[in-house]
Amino acid sequence: FGLLKRVDAHLGEYLSKKSRTKESFSDNCFSKSSSNSSIVTDEGLFEQPEPMASNTAIMEKILWRRSLQLHAQQQAWQESLEGRGILEFRQSLPAYKEKDAILTAILQNQVLIISGETGCGKTTQIPQFILESEIDFVRGAVCNIICTQPRRISAMSVSERVASERGEKLGESVGYKVRLEGMRGKETRLLFCTTGILLRRLLIDRNLKGVTHIIVDEIHERGINEDFLLIVLKDLLPRRPELKLILMSASLDAELFSSYFGGAPLIHIPGFTHPVRIHFLENILEMMGYRLTPYNQIDDYGQERMWKMSKQAPRKRKSQIASAVEDALRAADFKDFSPQTWESLSCWNPDCIGFNLIEYLLSYICENERPGAVLVFVTGWDDISSLKDKLQSHPILGDPNRVSLLTCHGFLASSEQKLIFEEPKDGVRKIVLTTNIAETSITINDVVFVLDCGKAKETSYDALNNTPCLLPSWISKVSAQQRRGRAGRVEPGECYHLYPRCVYDAFAEYQLPEILRTPLQSLCLQIKSLKLESISEFLSRALQSPELLAVQNAVEYLKIIGALDESENLTILGRYLTMLPMEPKLGKMLILGAILNCLDPVLTVVAGLSVRDPFLTPLDKKDLAETAKLQFSRDYSDHLALVRAYEGWKEAEKDLAGYDYCWKNFLSAQSMKAIDSLRVEFLSLLKGTGLIDGNATSCNTWSYDQHLIRAIICYGLYPGICSVVHNEKSFSLKTMEDGPVLLYSNSVNARESRIPYPWLVFNEKIKVNSIFLRDSTAVSDSVLLLFGGSISRGNVDGHLKMLGGYLEFFMQPAIAEKFQSLRREFDELIQNK
Ligand code: CDP
Ligand code: MG
């Protein structure tokens, strides 16, 4: 109780004291409040423009002189030998042929939409055209072009490419800025940044003073940030009539954007790709000596079967993969071979047919095919890392003298990034395992073969049940075509789709925009921090507005967790959460961890929740893997098990034995490394909020206390709670919204027969056939009572109502009443303190 008093005292007073000292939280939050203020910043991205010299005539002269210098530099580079070579390459790109048309259209219109095939030169050339024409018109020193990218890796790689095309170092006229990293100087006129960075700049500089051109790239992806940015920019355009907005898309559905911006003109860059031969699963199986044929027949059980696998006289030895596919198809016992039955084959589990097929095809290509890089699309970071582990033990694919096995995903370090674009040594085949990043935002030049798993990890959201899921789901036809197109850039290519043709035929034409399929909590917080009007009104002006129910759910959630007060205003906690670009629940854990000075394990928990599950469960060694996980568990918590596993890995790493440690314990070494770097990133973000000392390198002055961490986890994950009901032999679980729920089999709690706590808090529930909870931690009544919901004073009544609802639902009313009065007493005590 004493501890909890301290918690509340800390949270309420600490945060409000901080907010009093930081001007950014004054009433006009995030606006420029005092002279050359540098606003609370996680990365110095809110720097104010340099003060103008008082004498404008002198200033103009300086700028004019600088522009002339830039002009001379550009001329010199283009006349040099290397510069000429690069210019020739640039001129061969389809975008170059449209250069004049594009520049004229930009001059004549405030908004322009450009579409063109991936690789035609939109991202690298168009911003350069603008920069060069500004320099030619001797406005080079005043122009200020911002080009947004949906992902950090593309912002970084593209800026580097553009700088080298201009014969410069990064940070001269071309720079980049992504979260926690950047390279730009005073001379930078063209900045590539993530969409998130531009949104954060808008927080303090609503009119984007000094910016002359904004280029929003990859709008066809319809990411939530891009859709949000477009609403804000649409409002900004009338206020800044001289500001130019250019939208770039890889697909042809650009009319939607044109009509959104009042009929803005469209320019399409015609492209060229070589033909790509397509193989669906049927064809791949045929290659292996099997045939997947449609057939209509009533089987012994009276079921009509439409498809069967028949063995042809096998041309090759019956391979392990073919039998795996056969087994999987048989196991499905399907009536018809529809996308749904294919789905139920769970083909993308490691070691199941998906990975085996990939391994088979890769070794087939390496042994039999002509030279050329292979691009393998899998669902996400998770699959990349387990697939890489699997392939590395293959005699050919794991041999660095024959294969250069690379990965391409959002967490990639810059050094590894460069390798993707480099040509491999003679006789070595480059294989790149990638997420859908390489679909449109990154172009690898020498790709000839593409393997497409047909899925991408995307969030989906069921507003009715208020259940978010991050699951691999089928891509759209447009995405499949994009992936295929990657094979035909340099010469005719081959694309292997690892699913049957009928599944492809059932794909949706386009993917649903993210704003319609994700929970809107973070977005609502952002809208609030920009001090825009009511959330639902603002979102009603989006390109495609989300359902009202989804908006209401998000607002309700933010109120429950204490980020918004009853009248939908940001609370102090809410303002801090807007500074942490991550799910609010993770941000809450970090904030409380920082305040209670036990950040170290909390950083691990939060980083662990942000990467793939580091605990691997290979299908054939499921038991061994689950037992291995149990040794980290002593306290009915998957989250604490992860903390222990990470700490063990960290120790082992000191002796360079991290990999062995992971191997022995069924852990993913890549995930451990990702956790390690995310911890550093989160720590820097927290320093930016001012909650911890900016010089701190260690963050664990409070010694390890598992109960405290349990409470912090509960603080973050609430209202994701379920009650534990024991019967004679085991226990069952129930949530208020869904009734009975189950645990994922790899949860440490699933192995227990009793859980000596009445509640579990969970990170995620996923609807498959039943509802499954992933990653749970057991908590006591008192922890739930005192840490569930908001501890700061803003929303005590709302919280009590909510908690009361839970308690009454699960307990006898008398006990519930007693609990509520306890909590009230607690709050009063603190109020009176
Ligand atoms: O944006 P878009 O997909 O239209 O193409 P881009 O990213 O501007 O790339 C144009 C061309 O530049 C590509 O086809 C590649 O040949 C080349 N490029 C490269 O060699 N290395 C990079 N890091 C980026 C682009
Ligand atoms: Mg591009």
From TrEMBL:
Entry keywords, A to Z: ATP-binding, Helicase, Hydrolase, Nucleotide-binding, RNA-binding
GO molecular function, one term: hydrolase activity
GO cellular component: nucleus
EC code(s) of this entry: 3.6.4.13
Record bears the keyword Nucleotide-binding: yes
Domain spans labelled Helicase ATP-binding: 103-270
Catalytic activities: ATP + H2O = ADP + phosphate + H(+)
Residue span(s) of domain Helicase C-terminal: 357-531
Family of this protein: Belongs to the DExH box helicase family.
Name this protein carries in UniProt: RNA helicase
Organism: Durio zibethinus (Durian)
Name of encoding gene: LOC111317774
Residues of the full protein shown: 212 to 1044 of 1196
